[in-house]
Amino acid sequence: MSETESEKVVSVTSRGQATIPKEFREELGIDTPGRVKFIRTEEGDIVVRPIRSVTDLRGVLEGKTDEQGCSATERLQEERTADKASEEELRQRYAGDDEADERRTALRFPKRSSSTLNH
């Protein structure tokens, strides 16, 4: 180990949790509560980096697939397509149905009793 490296030994709980030493949290700017990402280098080392914004998560799921072999992007596109189809089906089903329009309006804007309005 070089002079610029430092080392701390920590315990890992039965749930797989380990506490990052305060010295390292301060040095890396890791807030508590906060989030970090673990990166495995080509050499096999594990690097811990703080996540400060959503853009820090970019690439985290790259190359990963679900049990059906779909990437996160493919799964999201499938869900959006299904949502649009479902919305269109509902629009067609209830198009021109005045009673359905009234029910939707009543759900969005429920009538309040006069006692509720006076308080």
TrEMBL record:
Residues in SpoVT-AbrB domain copies: 7-53
Disordered, as annotated region: 65-119
Gene Ontology molecular functions: DNA binding
Residue stretches of biased makeup (Basic and acidic residues): 75-105
Keyword vocabulary terms for this entry: DNA-binding
SMART domains: SpoVT_AbrB (SM00966)
PANTHER family: REPRESSOR-LIKE PROTEIN SSO7C3 (PTHR34860), TRANSCRIPTION REGULATOR, SPOVT_ABRB FAMILY (PTHR34860:SF7)
Name of protein: AbrB/MazE/SpoVT family DNA-binding domain-containing protein
